[in-house]
User: Which sequence fits this backbone?
């Protein structure tokens, strides 16, 4: 089992996690926690419109959660909320429904494909998606009342 999921690439990603500084003034902060293994990921986001402009994180997770956070941090800046939700959905389908791994700039998440055979490891692998999607939702929720209260044409 260890050789199958803890590949050299996963070890490399986990050892080199970028964006580990928290943001001074995030638009939103969110955390996700796995009750099963105790892993926790906390993220800060800033967005300009629908595009992520800043990202910081604190990662207290197993190697799989660390690797997932590493890939996220390398690619999130410049990504749209829709793109991030789509990659999260693709990852969930990859692990839970034998779907294909993400492609394009997110293809490094494919290194986590062997995790699908170890259900107990799914939660820690997906924590960063839960936290990022929560933060995006917070930002969008704050914008919605402002749009609804805006005067009509």
Assistant:
């Amino acid at each position: 089992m260890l050789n199958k999921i803890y590949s050299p690439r996963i070890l490399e990603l986990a050892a080199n996690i970028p964006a580990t500084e928290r943001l001074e003034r995030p638009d939103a902060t969110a955390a996700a926690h796995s009750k099963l293994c105790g892993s926790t990921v906390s993220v800060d986001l800033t967005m300009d419109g629908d595009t992520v402009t800043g990202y910081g994180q604190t990662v207290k997770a197993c190697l799989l959660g660390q690797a997932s956070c590493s890939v996220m941090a390398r690619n999130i800046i410049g990504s749209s909320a829709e793109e991030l939700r789509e990659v999260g959905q693709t990852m969930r389908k990859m692990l839970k429904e034998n779907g294909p791994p993400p492609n394009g700039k997110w293809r490094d998440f494919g290194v986590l494909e062997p995790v699908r055979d170890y259900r107990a490891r799914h939660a820690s692998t997906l924590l960063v998606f839960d936290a990022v999607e929560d933060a995006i939702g917070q930002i969008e929720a704050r914008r919605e009342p402002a749009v609804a209260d805006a005067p009509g044409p």
Notes: The first helix runs from residue 2 to 5. The first strand starts at residue 28 and ends at 33. Residues 1 and 118 are 9 Å apart (CA to CA).
